[in-house]
Amino acid sequence: MSHYDGQDKTPLYDAIVRYANENKISFHTPGHKHGKGILKPFRQLVGEKVFQLDLSVMSEIDSLHEPSSVIKEAQVLAAQAYGADYSFFLVNGTTGGNQAMILSVCDPGDKIIIPRNAHKSVISAVILAGAEPVYIMPKIDPGTDLILNLTADQVDQACRQNPDAKAVLITSPTYFGLTADLEAIAEVVHQHDKIFLVDEAHGPHLHFHPILPKSAMDSGADMCVQSTHKHLPALSQGSILHAKGLRVDILRLKTTLQMLQTTSPSYIILASLDIARHQMAKAGEQVLGDVIAMCEKTRQEINQIPGFSCVTREQIQKLPGLDLDLTKLTISTKNVPCSGYDMAKILNSEYSIQTEMSDFQNILLFISMGNTPKELKRFVSALRKIVVDYKDMFVNTKKRRPVVFPHFIPKKEVNPREALTGLTRKIPFKRSVGKICAEIVCPYPPGIPVLCPGEVITQEIYSYLMNVLESGARINGQSDGRLQTIKVLEDVPADSSANQKKLFVVN
After folding, report:
1. Which of 35, 259, 438, 466 has its CA 20 to 30 A from that of 106?
2. What mean pLDDT do residues 449-475 have?
3. Contact 70, 94 (CB under 8 A)
4. Alpha carbon distance 400, 394 (integer Å)
C-alpha cells in the first residue's frame, strides 16, 4: 500500500468550509464577526469569504492544542504523505518548529551540535533551552563562494569530541539549496546514540519527486521541520514538524508545542497546510517535474549570458557529500560590475522582478509551481538587456573583492542564555572590539548569525559587519538595526579567567 493512498481527503479544509457556510451568529472571537466589523475598503480588497474562514477554536473545527477530530485526521494524513510517524501543523513558521525540536530534546546545560550557519531561530532555541551550542564551521566553496553544507565526517568528528552531546541539528537544504548527505549523517549520529534533527525549512517539496535530493524523513532523521509556505502552496507562517517515535519523546514534544504555539491559531493557515499536503500527495511528482524542467532550461540560458553564471547540480555534486535542490536558481554576479544587492535593486526597480534574496555576489530565485515559463523567460530577457544597457560598465569592470561569510567562529566566554539575560550596557559598536556580545547580530538575508550572545567581538567581525552594511545588507536581531551601538555584558572583561568557559568548536 502506497503512503499516498487515501490522500484524496482534506478533512480540516472541508470542516472549515462547512462551518463558514452555515452562517452562524457569532458571540465569540475573533472580534470582526465574520468580517462585519472590518472597514469596507479592506473587506473589498481581500474579499468577504476570508473573514468567514477566520474562525476560533470550536468543536466542529477542532483544536490545534488538543486535536481530536479534523485537525488530528489532517495531521495523520500529512504523516502518511511524508513518511513520518507523527506530523504537527505549525502556525508560526519553522522558527517555532526549530524551537520545539530543540526544547523537546535539550535540558539546560545539554550540548547540541549545530552548524555555525544555522538560522537564527536555531540559535534562539538554544538560548531558550539554556543549552550549550557546539558549532561546526561549514566550508566555503572557492569556486562559487557559497557556504557549503556539513559532511558526515565533520559530524562524526564533532560527535567524537563531544560524546555527551544530546543531539545534532543539520540545516538541509541551505538557503541556496545545497543539501547534505542526510542518510550518511543519520547513520553517524545514531551510531553515537544521539538524536538527529533537521531544519528542512527549504525542503518541503523534496519528498515528492525522485530526482530531487532525499528528504530528511526518508533519510532517517528523528525530527524535521519544513516551511510548507516557502515552496508549496500554503500561506505564510504555515509549516509542519515531522517526527519518528523511536528516539523522540512524543509526549514532551506535544507539550512543548502547546507552550510555543498560540491558543488562537489561524484556521486559514491550517486549512492551507491541509490543501498543500493534498496537492503534493496527489500531483506532486507531475507539478515538480514541470518546475524542474523550467529551472533547468533557465539555468542553461543564464549560463550563456556574458558575465552571469548559474550554479549547476554538476558543480555541487563534485563536492563531497553535497547535492543541489534543482528548484533554486543561484545566479552569480562575481563577473558583473555590481553586487548582488545592486543587481536585485535593478531587477526590481527597472524590470519589476523581485528576487528571493541577494548577497554580495549572488541573487537567488525560488521557483515553485506558482511560477510560469513566461515569467522565467522574462527574467532571462531582463539579464540580457542589463548586459546591453550596462555594456560600458561590463567592459570596464574591475574585479571586485568578494565579501563572504567569515570562516571563523567567535570565542564563546559565556553561555548564550546567561549572556542574553545578564547585566548589559549599550556602547558604540566601533568601541566594542574585545567585549562580550549580549545579543544576536544577524545580517539578513540569509539570517545567519555572525555574533551570538556570549561571544567575543573581534576586529575581524567588526570589519566584516561594516562591509556588510556598506554593501547594502540589513542587520537583524539586535536592538540597533544600524549597528551604531551594540549591547555587551557589563563589566565582564573578555580575558577574565573567572569567566572562562570551555569553548566547543569543531572546524
Report:
1. 438
2. 86
3. no
4. 12
